[in-house]
Every structure is written in C-alpha cells, then in structure tokens.
Amino acid sequence: MAFSKGHGTGNDFVILDADVQLTPDLVAALCDRHFGIGADGVLRVLPSTAPDAAWFMDYWNSDGSLSEMCGNGVRVFAQHLVESGRVAEDGPIPIATRAGLRTAFPASAPGHPGFRVDMGAPELLGTSWARIGDQKFDGIGVSMGNPHLVCAVPAVEPLSLWESPVFDTEFYPEGVNVEFYTEIEPDHLRMRVYERGSGETLSCGTGTCAVAVAYLRSSGRSTGTVTVDVPGGRLVVTLDEQTCWLAGPAVIVAHGFVDTDALRYPA
C-alpha cells in the first residue's frame, strides 16, 4: 500500500489515497510507532461532495477513532495536495472536513512551506475542569469544530501527560482535547496538549486556536494575534471579528510502501 508521511510542527500523519479501505484496526496498526509507520493520525484524500471544495480530509486519530478536525492536519493535507499536483500551489485551497469547510492559503517563508488556514469562528462552551493526579485545573471550554478544554497553569513542563487527564464526562460526553498553557510574555504562550484519541502530541493546531481564544478572553479581548510555542515548534493564531486564522509550517517528509500483512494489529 502506497503512503506519504508529513508533519506540522511535529504533529505527524500517514497520508493515504481514496482507494485504501480504512478500518479502526488498520489505522491503529499504521500509527503504531514501533510496529507500524508511526503517526498521530491518518489523513485520507477523498473527493468531496461539497460544492465549494474538491477534496475531503478524512481524518482518523491514532487509536482508530474518527475526528471532526485537525488544524495541523489541514496544512499537511494542503501541502500534500500541492505536491501531488492536485491543486495549484499559489492559490487558496478549500478543504472539506467533518467540521465544515477550511481554506488554506500559502504562507511560506523561504525554504519553509506553510499555510495560513481559515479555521472558522470559535465557540465558547463555558467552564469545566480537568484533573491530573490530585491536581485539579479549572478551564474554559472552546469548540474549534472539535472540543477543547483550556487550562492556564504556572508552568507546563512539570505536568504528567502520560495518560489522559480526568475530565467531566457530562460536559464532554464524546471526550475532549485538553490544553495547558503558560504565558511567556504578553501574547506569547507555551502549550502542551493531550489529544483525544492520540495522547500527548508535539502540537495540536485546533488546540493552539482554542488556547489563543481562552487567553485573549482572559484579558478582556476577542481579537488579536498570539504566538504559541508547542514542543514541536511555533504556530501563530490570529482572531479577527469573523474567524480564527492558524499559520504554521507543513512538510511532507517521505513517500513509500507498507506491507499491511506485516503490521501488528490490535488484539
């Protein structure tokens, strides 16, 4: 089976074409970092049935569950469309997702391919909480097409994110991505995230958007530009009166073939 591999600030994906029939077990086997290719998720390129986009981003988490959206995934998906000749490299790239239309615009620095993506208007969900061990953190719920809980902390480095933080399952019945952030300086943050269905990742695009929304709200603002440093690099989020913009790199690092019979499938 042919595949490509890409990442956006270390959030990495196996990319497949439409002729591959995916199952949760196949996705989990491909994403296994020891017995498979290794990735935080799978992006499958499908033709779109939406009138305003030619391509649909079929995104699966590394545990084989489906997800509505992935901000880093949109940029990597757009870069793959460009490199595979499916779209022009100098124009907007509309992409259909389970959370609706997302449009990527080229925004590359020399030698560093990237995109600026219209992520849609955020939705504030109210307040909730997360717990790690005996520590409880109050947070703000934000939807970026997928659910987030954003918690401000004095420092992100000491947090243990080997397993999912405990959260309010009545508030988040379908699970949640939990972000923790600290302010480095005004409008410059450091973040870590535990992603629903994938575990702690080096970056989460929708998560950085959610963090920027919560941070700006905490300072009485609804618009502004926030730089967010994640373990895998740096993303820039801009909120205006209409929408949320996410800017960052997208890199395709490999193309190859995988023997699906040789993969180790979940028991």
List keywords for this structure.
about 270 residues; about 15% helix; single chain; mainly beta; 3 helices
Report on the architecture of this protein.
- By secondary structure, this protein is mainly beta.
- The protein is 13% helix and 44% strand.
- It has three helices and 18 strands.
- It has helices spanning 24-31, 71-83, 205-218; strands spanning 2-8, 11-16, 41-47, 55-61, 93-97, 100-106, 114-118, 123-132, 135-143, 147-152, 166-167, 177-185, 188-195, 199-201, 224-230, 233-239, 244-249, 251-257.
- The chain has an 18-stranded mixed β-sheet that branches.
- It is globular and about 50 Å long.
Put simply, the count of helices is 3
What is the general shape? globular
Estimated structural class? mainly beta
Percentage of residues in strands: 35-45%
Q: How far is the first residue's CA from the last residue's CA? A: 22 Å
Oligomer description: single chain
Number of strands: 18
What order do the SSEs take from the amino end to the carboxyl end, as H and E? Answer: EEHEEHEEEEEEEEEEHEEEE
Mean pLDDT: 96
Approximate helicity band: 10-25%
Radius of gyration: 18 Å
Largest sheet: 18 strands, mixed
Are there runs of 5+ residues with pLDDT below 50, and where?
A: none
Helix and strand topology:
Elements: E1 2-8, E2 11-16, H1 24-31, E3 41-47, E4 55-61, H2 71-83, E5 93-97, E6 100-106, E7 114-118, E8 123-132, E9 135-143, E10 147-152, E11 166-167, E12 177-185, E13 188-195, E14 199-201, H3 205-218, E15 224-230, E16 233-239, E17 244-249, E18 251-257
